[in-house]
Amino acid sequence: MRFLAEISIAFRAALSVLSENRWRSLLTLAVCGTGTAGIMLAGVLAEINLAEMQTRLSALGGNLLVISPNKLPPFPGRARQLEHFISLAPEDVPAIAEAINAEAVVPVVARETTIRSQNRSARVRLVGTTPDYLKVRNFRLGSGRFLSSEDDGERTIVLGYAVSRELGLEGIEAGEIVFVGNNPYTVIGEIAPQGVNFAGEDEDHQVFVPLTTYQRRIANRPWLSHLYVQLSPEADSRRTVTAVQSLLRGRHGRWDYQVDDTLVRNLADLAAEQSQLLTTVVWVVSITGVVLLLIGIAGIATLMLLVVRQRRAEIGLRRALGATPADIAFQFLIEGMILAGTGILLGLVVGISGSLVLKQFFPGPAMWNSNLPLIGVLLSVIASAAACAVPAVIAARLEPAVALQP
């Protein structure tokens, strides 16, 4: 009963402190709550980052290299300049396949264009490639089939998931016709939803035609946009990158003093770099949340020290009437913790609400961890208790005679 009475007295005193220092208390509660919410949201962002990286890594299809044209160095005084070297040729495909331990080498050419179906149109990325593209990119078919060797030179096309929806062709049937320019192409399949790749491109806004069809009927040029090289599981990707780069320099006649005309990159390395960047962002959010929490805790400690100074007479009177230092310390500790607890509760509400909002924008199986609120509250309570203990100890050490002096 005595314990409950002490808590009741401390609670009423805490409400009095809040009302007497209204604006300072509200600011302290807001900052403390923001810190608690920041810690929780940082944890949610970390889980989003991890889930997204795992999804993208699994979408790479294993040990995959991408070879693309390098940017041309600028030449002062030249009015018109190409952006990239034009040197990646179809003959490079068998040369690379023969030189390294590769399961597949897939050439790709691509351009932006518009396709039509009846009275609808869609802006798409038109990709000319070979049948192995589906395997090396780890894409899944939604319906129909993908390109085959029998389609070489034919006007056949495979639609991305979003493209078929824009054209109103859900549930594609064999023999459906779409127009690329003024030429009809027969739809033979649809790719299942893939999402966004590392370059920020929407994989679902792509359509695929045979490489030979693209080169003969659409672009009338042999040059390639890039190559995908699927390595065997036992291959050393770093050594392979160096070997491919050296091979292409020799094939394209690059001298030692000249820059590489192609870039060879391991997509797994790119994924790791992006993951590291996102992890840095999460750390920044986490540190910001901790700093805000510390500022809020410092505000609580400052407010409680001010309260101790204002209530010196009350402390002296209670000590004179028989209250022990432990009673005084307990009273002020409870008052401070009530103030801190209110801020933590507000932060908990904001953190959970923000996490649910993030879940709507970034749905995923590894999205929510029920330990995050517990971790945020636990850190906040420990820091708050440490901050409230300082003014409580100061109040307990006041001697009655000193405290009662005017």
Strand content: 15-25%
The end-to-end distance, rounded to whole angstroms, is 35 Å
Helix content: 40-55%
Look at the helices and sheets and give the structural class: alpha+beta
Which radius of gyration do the C-alpha atoms yield? 33 Å
* Count of strand segments: 10
Q: Please, what is the average pLDDT?
A: 77
Q: What is the H/E string?
A: HHEHEEHEEHEEEHEHEHHHHH
Backbone shape: elongated
Low-confidence stretches: none
How many distinct helices?
12
Write down the domain tally.
Answer: 2
Strand order of the largest sheet: 2-3-8-5-7-6
Largest sheet: 6 strands, mixed, barrel
What does this protein structure show overall?
With 406 residues, the chain is α+β, with helices and mostly antiparallel strands. The protein folds into 2 domains: 2-56 and 272-403, no CATH class; 71-260, no CATH class. It has helices at residues 2-20, 22-59, 92-99, 133-136, 161-166, 211-218, 237-251, 267-310, 312-320, 325-361, 371-396, 400-403, and strands spanning 64-69, 102-117, 120-129, 141-144, 156-159, 177-180, 183-191, 206-210, 226-231, 262-266. Strands 2-3-8-5-7-6 form a 6-stranded mixed beta barrel.
